[in-house]
Write a structure and sequence with these properties.
Helix content: 10-25%
Shape: globular
Number of helices: 3
Oligomer: single chain
Mean pLDDT: 86
Structural class: alpha+beta
Distance between the termini: 88 Å
Number of strands: 4
Low-confidence stretches: 116-121
Strand content: 15-25%
Order of helices and strands: EHEEEHH
Strand order of the largest sheet: 2-1-3-4
Length: 121
């Protein structure tokens, strides 16, 4: 058997992001679009993205795995809605690349103290 006809060996690449989505709800396009957005933002950090069709009604979950650590980034049933892409980017960044600047998608830290405002008397 020559090299080209050998089956490809696949090893999961970390960090890995997996989108589980309901096929009956036709959420595959949404999962694919969000996966592409994450790949575009984290092209140097993400090892692979997986789309996992599910027959479980109403499921839309996003998992991130990095080595032995795994976290549920989003669960539509728990949150009651789909994530905004910037929310998903922030959650993934916090898990795999905490120092990465997301530019305009970044959450600004809340000001501490009184913010320098004083009441006039």
């Amino acid at each position: 058997m020559d090299e080209e006809s050998k089956p490809m060996e696949h090893q999961i690449q970390a960090p890995r992001v997996a989108f589980q989505y309901c096929t009956g709800c036709q959420w595959g396009m949404r999962a694919g679009w969000m996966a592409q957005e994450l790949l575009k933002t984290f092209e140097k950090e993400i090892g692979e993205v997986a789309l996992q069709p599910s027959k479980e009604g109403g499921i839309f979950r996003v998992w991130a795995t990095n080595g032995d650590a795994a976290t549920l980034l989003w669960d539509r049933k728990t949150e009651g809605r789909f994530p905004e892409v910037k929310e998903l980017k922030q959650k993934l960044r916090d898990f795999i690349a905490p120092d990465k600047n997301l530019g305009h998608s970044d959450v600004k830290p809340a000001p501490t103290g009184d913010g320098g405002s004083a009441e006039a008397n």
